[in-house]
Amino acid sequence: MLTLPILTLRNEIENAQRQFVAKLEERCNRQIRVKVGYKGGYEECVIRWSPVLCLWFNSGRIVENRYWNPFGLSEAAPRENSMLSIVCEINPPVEGLNKQVQGAFMRDENGHIWLLHRGKIGGGKPGIGRKLFFENYRGETMEIAGEKFAVIGDIDSSDFVDHVTDFVREVERIKALAA
User: Where are the domains of the chain?
Assistant: First the structure.
């Protein structure tokens, strides 16, 4: 079992979140005003979309005790003011160790910051959740302090955004299994 530290200090998480978003913005460079739908409502916001990756995301808001980072997939450019559905969220806490949020940052023995996910995926349908996720997840996992995580990628790696895109596609595939 690895004992690598999950980042818990506010300034460390804030720096990792900023780096995470900056990497995504490099590749998702088209900005579009849309409505991002979720269970119980929607949020009007500006997403960033990549025509190459077919990935969109939004970031910048702190909701309660976490950074809100919704992701989705769209082959065509989303239309202005259209409603988009979230495939998954990767929401690290603002500070501390919060197992209710699904995103986390970890520092490895070389000082690299990694993005992780706890595997609880929503979907509004029975059967979609952490159990389904880890029974079907094809990516790398690791256990830290007795808790299982999906490893998304090293934020400093040149292919980090590709790993994020692969993760979002994998969540979409897993959710389709519950249909």
Answer: 10-177
